[in-house]
Design a protein that fits this description.
The complex is a heterodimer of chains A (about 300) and B (about 280). Chain A is an all-alpha fold. Chain A has 12 helices and 2 strands. Chain A is globular and about 75 Å long. Chain B is an all-alpha fold and about 280 residues long. Chain B contains 14 helices and no strands. In chain B, helix 3 packs across helix 13 and helix 6 packs across helix 7. The radius of gyration of chain B is 24 Å and the shape is flat. The chains are: A mainly alpha (about 300), B mainly alpha (about 280). At the A-B interface, helix 1, helix 3, helix 4, helix 5 and helix 7 of A face helix 1, helix 2, helix 4, helix 5 and helix 6 of B.
Chain lengths: ~300, ~280
């Protein structure tokens, strides 16, 4: 018993340095950010801050521009989620087909959009893919006699273009998680399905999807977290425009805090993002524990 | 029988065709960058002209290296990313190991705390850090930017490493205890070698995340600590008037070269890191 307790205490000696640093670099800004959200603070003049209570929150929720940013973030996040999970399953399913040759090659190539610097990815999409005159997409459209939309310069299409570009960056994660899960499905299960006369799409629906359920949960939460806070890709593509058609919450908070120097409001906007993600995290942890129990 | 064989071959063709289409979609942005960087007039040339290298030149790369302070940004990126990897490993490997050694309830509390931190949007931390760093005299310093990176890396790394340490069978340490190992020996000589490939995977991912990071750098780097990701946007701003797309593309190719190289040579590690934590260990 004494030895047991000794082993538990020795664990803490390994934990404490890291835990201290983590609280310092994450806890401190989080706590201060919340306190700034209760004050009038301005950049380069924050010795003159005044406590205003929840006034900033009231102003934020009354602000149609905030509601607009919230709506755009929601559409963007949902779009990235649907595209990533959908294409993720599809490509992983193809990659796992028995006929596929050179699997390591495909895996290595499909990984590249995920590791490619998002700000550079955004620049590449902007100048060489969405570009109105000579971008790849409009060149292909023109070849078939189609129109040449302005994509990133048009309020109607900019958000769609940003969602597709960001999904390009996120889909590899979904593909590789689903593919790793599919390779663990024993061949006998596929054989059994085939004997029962299941086609590939029936197999996908009745055999593969139920097995993938915990992985879909995992991928969804990573995609939601990542898309919800996305800044780099949209910043490179449109900078939040045209108008405010791609101003997601991260960009909205940046504009308020750094460009408009209103740090109180910026921190309030950011803190509402934190609350939204905290609720999401809580839902995820609850579901995660449940699936864990179901598997145990 | 012949019919079945034909059908099988047709399926194989269709599968490879679809994978090929996905390959084109995946590689289009980096390939277009590379193509544009190797042409002398990248502006308003058709994609096909660029891909066929109609105006082949290496001059864009010479210019990207010599103009726009490339090496200044490169040095900042390298120092910050390298230091981020080193500190994350030194701090998080013991942290995650210790978590697998403490009792259930305390472990759950810290673990879910760590997991919850992974959900914090970066802008939530970046805004207050801006003010904190001004007060601490860290604004525009590499140290400040490094601390900001650590706020992403520590929760991420700890969560991933706990998953790796959990795969180490308990009997291994039991045997070590019988052999009279000290706690440090148990950690360093017994357990650590088992999770070595997981730690390599983590180090590569942390490096890539730091190398690619832009938001913190935009908020906190001032003018002295700017990494390549800020460098390219500044270069873009300065060059857009002259619209030297070729030079911008060359610069972009140089920024992504290290991470692409990692993806090509160490993809096994990267994939194992990305998929870690997918299923409950």
């Amino acid at each position: 018993m004494a030895q047991r307790r000794d082993r538990f205490t020795r664990g803490w000696w390994f934990i404490l340095p890291g835990l201290t640093l983590m609280v310092a670099v994450v806890g401190t800004p989080l706590a201060l950010g919340f306190s700034y959200s209760l004050q009038d603070v301005f950049l380069y003049a924050f010795d003159r801050k005044t406590f205003v209570g929840l006034e900033n929150y009231r102003r934020v929720f009354d602000d149609p521009l905030y509601m607009n940013a919230l709506r755009i973030t929601g559409i963007f996040t949902l779009g990235c989620l649907v595209l990533s999970v959908g294409f993720g399953i599809l490509i992983a399913f193809l990659l796992n087909a028995r006929q596929v040759k050179f699997r390591p090659f495909w895996v290595a190539m499909f990984l590249i959009p995920f590791v490619m610097t998002p700000i550079v990815g955004g620049i590449a999409w902007k100048f060489f893919i969405w570009q109105q005159e000579t971008g790849v997409i409009n060149t292909i459209l023109a070849f078939f006699g189609g129109p040449k939309p302005y994509w990133l310069l048009d309020r109607e299409t900019a958000l769609l273009a940003a969602t597709i570009s960001n999904s390009w960056h996120l889909i590899p994660l979904a593909v590789l998680v689903f593919y790793a899960a599919l390779t663990t499905i024993p061949d006998e299960l596929h054989e059994a399905g085939r004997v029962d006369g299941a086609g590939p799409f029936q197999a996908l629906w009745y055999i593969i999807l139920p097995i993938l359920r915990p992985h879909i949960l995992f991928v969804s939460i990573i995609i939601i977290t990542s898309a919800f806070r996305e800044f780099d890709m949209i910043w490179a593509l449109t900078g939040g425009g045209p108008g405010r058609s791609t101003t997601v919450l991260s960009i909205f908070a940046y504009n308020r805090g750094i460009a408009n120097q209103d740090m109180g409001m910026a921190n309030t906007i950011a803190f509402t993002m934190f609350v939204i993600m905290a609720v999401t995290a809580w839902i995820y942890i609850t579901l995660y524990r449940k699936t864990g129990k179901a598997e145990a | 029988m012949k019919h079945a064989k034909l059908k099988k071959r047709a399926t194989a063709w269709v599968v490879h065709l679809l994978l090929g289409l996905w390959l084109v979609f995946s590689l289009l942005p980096p390939v277009m960058l590379l193509a544009a960087s190797l042409n002398s007039t990248a502006l308003f040339r058709s994609p096909l002209d660029l891909l066929l290298l109609r105006d082949f030149t290496l001059d864009n790369f010479t210019q990207a290296f010599t103009r726009g302070d490339f090496w200044f940004f490169f040095t900042n990126s390298l120092i910050i990313s390298g230091a981020a990897v080193a500190i994350t490993l030194v701090v998080c490997v013991p942290l995650a190991y210790g978590l697998t050694k403490i009792s259930g309830r305390a472990r759950a509390a810290v673990s879910y705390g760590v997991l919850a931190m992974r959900f914090i949007p970066y802008v939530v931390l970046a805004l207050p850090m801006f003010l904190i760093f001004v007060n601490l005299g860290l604004s525009g310093s590499r140290t400040g930017l490094l601390l900001a990176h650590l706020s992403i890396h520590i929760p991420f790394a700890t969560w991933m490493l706990v998953g790796f340490f959990d795969t180490v069978p308990g009997e291994l340490e039991e045997a070590g205890i019988v052999d009279g190992c000290t706690p440090w020996n148990l950690f360093w000589d017994v357990t650590l070698p088992v999770v070595r490939s997981g730690i390599i995977a983590l180090a590569i991912l942390v490096f890539i995340i730091s190398w690619n990071e832009y938001l913190f750098a935009l908020f906190l780097a001032g003018s002295d600590a700017q990494p390549l990701t800020v460098g390219i946007t500044r270069f873009l701003g300065g060059a857009e008037a002259g619209a030297e797309y070729g030079v911008i593309a060359a610069y972009a190719v140089l920024v992504i070269a290290p991470v692409i190289l990692f993806a090509l040579t160490a993809n096994r590690f990267i994939v194992s890191g990305m998929t870690a934590g997918a299923v409950k260990g």
